[in-house]
Design a protein that fits this description.
The complex is a heterodimer of chains A (116) and B (113). Chain A has strands spanning 3-6, 10-14, 19-21, 23-26, 31-38, 45-50, 56-58, 64-68, 73-78, 87-95, 105-106, 110-115. In chain A, the strands form 3 sheets. In chain A, strands 2, 5, 6, 10, 11 and 12 form a 6-stranded mixed sheet that branches. With 116 residues, chain A is mostly beta strands. The radius of gyration of chain A is 14 Å and the shape is globular. In chain A, strand 5 and strand 6 (45-50) form a beta hairpin. Chain A is built from no helices and 12 strands. Helix content of chain A is 0%, strand content 53%. Chain B has 113 residues and is mainly beta. Helices cover 0% and strands 57% of the residues of chain B. In chain B, strands 2, 4, 5, 6, 9, 10 and 11 form a 7-stranded mixed sheet that branches. In chain B, strands 1-3-8-7 form a 4-stranded antiparallel sheet, with no helix packed on it. In chain B, strand 4 and strand 5 form a beta hairpin. Classes of the chains: A mainly beta (116), B mainly beta (113). Chain A binds chain B through residues 31-32, 34, 36, 42-46, 49, 51, 90, 94-96, 101-109, and chain B through 31, 33, 41-45, 48, 50, 55-56, 58, 90, 92, 97-107.
């Protein structure tokens, strides 16, 4: 079975600070990788995804993530955060085969608070 | 348009009640999902439907009964729930079942008294 670990439960930053949220997964096969964001009172929204190809993927609102296969990592980055980025961020994986095929598994989530 | 709608937004029910949650998408997606999200926890997969057929049941208790009447609709029938079943129930859809991108609805906040 696959599992996802997010390094930080709660991150507090000031506006304009740089952001990096860690995500590691455990699975023996090939996976698709996702970052979802949940703004206060809103539903889960897709931020970005990686299926194959260039390991550096860009998403909405200036976010990007890098897939490092050797480290089983998919860290989320943003050069300069804004107050409106305050939200909970979930890393998720979905296996491309095997018994976990089609089962989206989420990490525990990281709450990001951006202070003005 | 990547919208998944869910009704009702909030539901309060007693342990002897029967109620249903509804989910709808008009993106032509052929896979639909139910997730359960407890407070301060990530969503956990409950059921997967592919082409209107149940393909994955993550050992969910029988008091939760899913139904997919057509390719756009997904229901979750609830009966004899327990207070620990109180949670946010999320519906999602994807173009196809498998590791495709899933789009989530806003959820139904369920409280079982």
């Amino acid at each position: 079975a696959q599992s996802v670990s997010q390094h930080n439960h709660h991150v507090i930053l000031s506006e304009a600070a740089s952001l990096e949220l860690g995500c590691n997964y455990s699975y023996g096969g090939t996976v698709n990788l996702f970052w979802y964001v949940q703004y206060p009172g809103q539903h889960l929204q897709l931020l970005l995804k990686y299926f194959s190809g260039d390991p550096l993927v860009k998403g909405i609102k200036g976010f990007e993530a890098e897939f490092i296969k050797s480290k089983f990592s998919f860290n989320l980055r943003k050069p300069s955060v804004q107050w409106s980025d305050t939200a909970e961020y979930f890393c998720a994986v979905n296996a491309q085969g095997g018994t976990s095929y089609g089962k989206l598994t989420f990490g525990q989530g990281t709450i990001l608070t951006v202070q003005p | 348009d990547t919208e998944v709608t869910q009704t009702p937004k909030h539901l309060v029910m007693g342990m002897t009640n029967k109620k249903s949650l509804k989910c709808e998408q008009h993106m032509g997606h052929r896979a639909m999902y139910w997730y359960k999200q407890k407070a301060k926890k990530p969503p956990e997969l409950m059921f997967v439907y592919s082409y209107e057929k149940l393909s994955i049941n993550e050992s969910v208790p029988s008091r939760f009964s899913p139904e997919c009447p057509n390719s756009s609709l997904l229901n979750l029938h609830l009966h004899a729930l327990q207070p620990e079943d109180s949670a946010l129930y999320l519906c999602a859809s994807s173009r196809l079942a498998g590791p495709d991108t899933q789009y989530f609805g806003p959820g139904t906040r369920l409280t079982v008294l």
